[in-house]
Amino acid sequence: MHIKVIVSVSALVGVASAQQAAWGQCGGIGWTGPTTCVSGYTCTYSNDYYSQCIPGTAATTTTKTTTKATTTSTKTTTTSTNPSPTLYLCGDSTMAKNGANDGATDGWGNQVAKYFTGITVNNQAIGGRSARSYTREGRFNTVIGLVKAGDYVVIEFGHNDGGSLSTDNGRTDCPGTSTETCPVTYNGVAETVLTFSAYLENATKSLKAKGAIVILSSQTPNNPWEGVTTFPGTGSPPRFVAYAETSAGRQGATYLNHWLYSMDLYKRLGASATNAVYPNDHTHTSPTGADHMARSFIKGLMCGSNALKNKINTSAASVVTGSCL
Ligand SMILES: *[C@@H]1O[C@H](CO)[C@@H](O)[C@H](O)[C@H]1NC(C)=O
Ligand SMILES: *[C@@H]1O[C@H](CO)[C@@H](O)[C@H](O)[C@H]1NC(C)=O
């Protein structure tokens, strides 16, 4: 990844403004927040849509002590455990810090760190994004540029991936589960739209090539108790749930059925407790609801085989309920 270091003009002329926290966004098209970083971090150009506060001067080829042991007799490449791994989260508002940015909601990625130990959570989720727009804006590239061997990456999309391309909103994916393409013109620019699976798998390949361990997680459900008194059951997930599973299988990534574990939790919580965590709509949860979604992710992780489960703080996660599904 090519990296330019941005020196903020306001910093040079001494204009007082809040400094962005570690790993936070500090620039890009449409960005109106802080453009300088806290001490020890530098605002670093990632793409036209995103500059980020990165430790030191720039995340150029970091030579951290990660070693790669390749067995000669088989085609298996084993990457040694990263001594201080990072868990990167790629997703939409249901995962992002502050959720829908309405002062009432939060994303599960902002609640999950307390259930881990020995790993740093770096939440790169951002509201309104789909697998397509996250790709087009270079946000996967940002994470691909940051990951080191032995880091973990969770990718979870779906809420913004549906809809019709006849009135293209820049987020809708091409229908299908494979190499289908849809030519569109978005914002006056010709674009070949790919399927949800193609975006997920393209990112997964690049992340795995850098030694990252990828988890494709299905989207969280909308409030299943909205307007009903009988739990609707788990027979009709949104189509992106199955797409994530298919893509994980094709790419040798871990699939975590976050949708199913969340539905199970909501079923056990019941109607009133579930409705209470949806303050504004049926998609975005309160911080309490985001914590529920963090717990259902942890439950799915505990029930699976991905090595990230070894980073669960069992004491903190003792509040996580439910059975393996
Ligand atoms: C594949 O992923 C890379 C890395 O995110 C990105 O630069 C590229 O545009 C993607 N290709 C397609 C066809 O989406
Ligand atoms: C694990 O979680 C408990 C309870 O939240 C907390 O007190 C403790 O500091 C955590 N331990 C580690 C090693 O993170």
UniProtKB/TrEMBL annotation:
Q: One Pfam family, short name please?
A: Lipase_GDSL
CBM1 domain residues are 18-54
Residue spans crossing the bilayer: none
Record-level Gene Ontology MF annotations: cellulose binding; hydrolase activity, acting on ester bonds
Q: Which UniProt keywords apply?
A: Hydrolase, Signal
GO BP terms in the entry: carbohydrate metabolic process
Classification via SMART domains: fCBD
Q: Has the keyword Signal been applied to this entry? A: yes
User: Which residues are the signal sequence here?
Assistant: 1-18
Q: Is the Signal keyword given for this protein?
A: yes
GO CC entries:
extracellular region
Q: Which domain of life is it from?
A: Eukaryota
Question: Which family does the record assign?
Answer: Belongs to the 'GDSL' lipolytic enzyme family.
Against PANTHER family, the record matches this protein to: PUTATIVE (AFU_ORTHOLOGUE AFUA_2G17250)-RELATED (PTHR43695), RHAMNOGALACTURONAN ACETYLESTERASE (PTHR43695:SF1)
- Protein name, per record: CBM1 domain-containing protein
Protein's organism: Dactylellina haptotyla (strain CBS 200.50) (Nematode-trapping fungus)
